[in-house]
Structures are given as structure tokens and as C-alpha cells.
Amino acid sequence: MRIPCPYCGSRDLSEFIYHGDAKPKRPDRSAENASELHYNYVYLRENPAGPIQELWYHASGCRSWLNVARDTRTHIIAGAILATEAMP
Amino acid sequence: MKCFSLLTLAKEALSGNRGWLPQWREATPQSAYDVVVIGGGGHGLATAYYLAKQYGIRNVAVLEKAWIGSGNVGRNTTIVRSNYLLPGNIPFYELSMKLWEGLEQDFNYNAMVSQRGVLNLYHSDQQRDAYARRGNAMRLHGVDAELLDLDGVKAIAPFLNFDDARFPIQGGLLQRRGGTVRHDAVAWGYARAASGSGVDIIQNCEVTGMEILQGRITGVRTSRGPIRARKVAVAVAGSTSRVATMAGLTLPIESHVIQAFVSEAIKPLIPGVITFGAGHFYVSQSDKGGLVFGGDIDGYNSYAQRGNLPVVEDVCEGGMALMPMIGRIRVLRNWGGLLDMSMDGSPIIDRSSIDGLYLNCGWCYGGFKATPASGLCFAHLIAQDAPHPAAVAFCLDRFALGALIDEKGVGAQPNLH
């Protein structure tokens, strides 16, 4: 697998550290059901078989956090952008 | 089902081996069962076997989307051991080890259970202390463990690289009762014995949906038609989330890939199972002579049953650091298997939020050694609707309650377990 880093270009998998699904967002701690929301955020994963957006850290490169679009069935990477740009 | 004994073997040998029958019936799906087990791997087959044998529930179907033995039960590195640290884990894995010890007599099949010993090497004072603690925890639970010094390791494995300046071998933690088991034979033995007890083993039958009525499961839809069931048990390892999604469940599971390797066959070299403590590399030698080895998981979500080259390199580097003389042996094959990595690295055997739907998942990279106990405890849960005493800690709500069983202590990051 090679990951297209927006800064560094196409780089080998071994330069990156994986964090996982980019979908879970840290919930509001003042919400009424904050405990349940945090349980969902920390532990539950959709774990899709197919396209997924995930966080990768370019540790041995530009040290950017990336948002990578990848297919878990084929490992084919559709693209990568900076994680900050992927934020709403 | 024909019983294997010295007498039947002799008879067959004298009559040209023409009397052997298929090891299990080729069943076609009935319209309804008491229990449908999804997944014809080691755990699913063992569950069906113990349901019939231990709990008298024989109206059972095992649904397998491909063929028996095509998944992880035929893809692992065949190691069995019970050298765990935490109280939730040790009794369960020791139950499994005890079941391995009597398995072949129990299900009348040669699974080649070989208690050749599992040796975990340590390379620093701190690691020795950690292993001493683990060994003490094991012995307090009645599990065998021996802490070896350097001479003890040299007596067992004189070929290791003892002169490594960066990671000198100082000793090891040895579990003599650990070892290896012929993995395919485990699948075949359980399938044969379950089928002999009346269980229908249905291959090439993929579950495509679940019938749920007012919070209760009533059956499954499959590629070979609908099947009604009073209880449905899911034992599908890396495909757990896919199957759970059919019931609308989201679980604390990520699917990952781990690779395993086998070398060309050589003369007997490795006496038992040896693990490198400074990197991640474990090796044993099959009875055919090939070195069977592996290391870390690839570390990213995957359903591909194949991995990438950085891990291949890392595993081989670990092997070269530990036993440089294997450098000229050629790797014959490598392959990948799908892991159901849980959020604390420990398994889940529990009811789900849907009545009649039971979960057996989260085995990470350690499912094979657990096969007999997993089957027994899962069968107990399904039959009695209460957890088996050895698997009480493997409940699904432990994540919400904070009662995690995190052997490695790395938190909710599945690729680090």
C-alpha cells in the first residue's frame, strides 16, 4: 500500500501510523447523555467492509494527520487530504 | 459415523481402505432449527458439538458461507497455550488447555495435539520481572509455568542468537503444556463429531439477513433460502461486524488482517514454540518440517485476507535477529486471515440486545487456542441463557462498565493489542 500524502506525494505504508476510522467525533461532555455518547465514541465502530475514511499520521514524513479514503476489501486508496481540511 | 480404533484401522488396512465414509453428512437446510450457528469455523463447529454432546440440543444447523476450514481455523499458526496474566482470562484459557488435552479421546479424531512447550524469551531485567509476574499469576491459578535463566534456554534451544548485543537473550518463561495442534483436523474432528450427533453442517450457505420480530430473532435469510430458528449464534470472527449489521448492532470490534508464513521443509530444528521478546516473532516447526511463523498484525482495518510488505519485512527481521541460521531457508507461502479485534484485546461471549441472538467474537489473533473452551462456553450460554462460569468476564457491557480485560494495557486502540 502507498499513501498519497498531499505534501510528500506517494509514500510507502511503513512511513505512516494508523489511528482508525475518522468518523467518530469527540462528543460534547456537557450533554445530558454524555456518558453514553462517550461510550459510543470510544468503543463502538461501524467497521465497514468497503469504503472508509480513516486517520493516518505521516510519522516518518511531514508529520501531518491525513484523512485517507480507502476500501477495506481491496486496500485501494481513492485519495488523501489533510485531516484539518476534512473537518466540518 | 464410523469409530476410529485400532480394530477399524486394521480392518480397513486389510480390505484396501474401501470402507471409509465421508467424515460428515452433506446436509441440506431444513426449514427450522432450535439453534442456527452462523459460521462453520472452529468456534462454530465446536459450539454445535458441545450443544449436542453436553447440553442435548441436537436440532442444530451450522451455516458456512464457503467450506469447512476455509477461514481462520485453517489459517492460524496452530499454537495452543494458556499463559495469560489477568484473572478474567486465565481460567478460561486453562479450561481450553484442559479440553485440548482430552480432545482426541473426546471426539475420537486425531488432531495431533502436541504439547511441545511454548517458550517466551525475555531480553531485559524489566521483561524478566514482567514474565516472573505473569508466571506467578499463572501458577496461582494452577497453570504450569517455569521461569528459565540463560542456561535453561540454552539447554532447550542452543541454536538461538545468544550474542546479540542489542537484545541479549536473558532467559524465558516456559509453559511445557503449551504446544501445537493440527488446525484443519480440529475443524474436521468437530464437524465429524457434531454431524454424528445429528447437527446439520451446511456449506456454501451464506447468511444474507436476519428476521427480527419485536426485539426477538425468529430466523435468518440465507443464499439457500430462509431458515427459522429459536436461537441464532454468531461465530464469524473477522466478519462479525458485517453479520451484526444485519441485526442493526454496532459492536466494539474492528476487522484487521494478520499474516502467517511457512518455509520449505527442513529436518527437525525447532523443538517447541519460541517467541522473540524484543520484537514480535513466533515460530514452531510443523511435523512436515516447514517452519510456521508470524508476528505483528498489519495494523489497519481490512477485510482483504491479505497483507502488505512492511509486516513481511518486520517478521523476517525478527526471525533473523533471533535465529540467523534460518536466513537461507526460503519462504514457501504466506497468507492473511481476518481478525475480530476487540477494543480491549479480549473476547466477547454474550447475549446481544436482541432476544435469542448470541455473540461470540473479539478473539483478536488468539482464537485458535480458545476453540474448545469457546465452543463449550458459547454452547452453555445458548443452552442455559446464562454465562459459563469460566467466561463470565467476557460480557459485552464490560466496555460501558469499565471492567475491561486489557492484557497489554494499551486502551481502546485495537491495532495495538
If you had to describe this structure to a student in words, what would you say it looks like?
The complex is a heterodimer of chains A (88) and B (417). Chain A is α+β, with helices and mostly antiparallel strands and 88 residues long. Chain A has helices spanning 34-43, 83-86, and strands at residues 2-5, 9-12, 17-21, 51-57, 65-71, 77-82. Chain A has one domain: Folate-binding fold. Chain A has a four-stranded antiparallel β-sheet. In chain A, strands 1-2 form a two-stranded antiparallel ribbon. With 417 residues, chain B is an alpha/beta fold. In chain B, 28% of the residues lie in helices and 27% in strands. Chain B is built from ten helices and 18 strands. In chain B, strands 1, 2, 8, 9, 10, 11, 17 and 18 form an eight-stranded mixed β-sheet that branches. An eight-stranded mixed β-sheet of chain B has the order 5-6-4-13-14-15-12-16. In chain B, α2 runs parallel beside α6 and α2 packs across α9. In chain B, 51% of the residues are buried. Classes of the chains: A alpha+beta (88), B alpha/beta (417). At the A-B interface, β3 and α1 of A face β12, β15 and α8 of B.
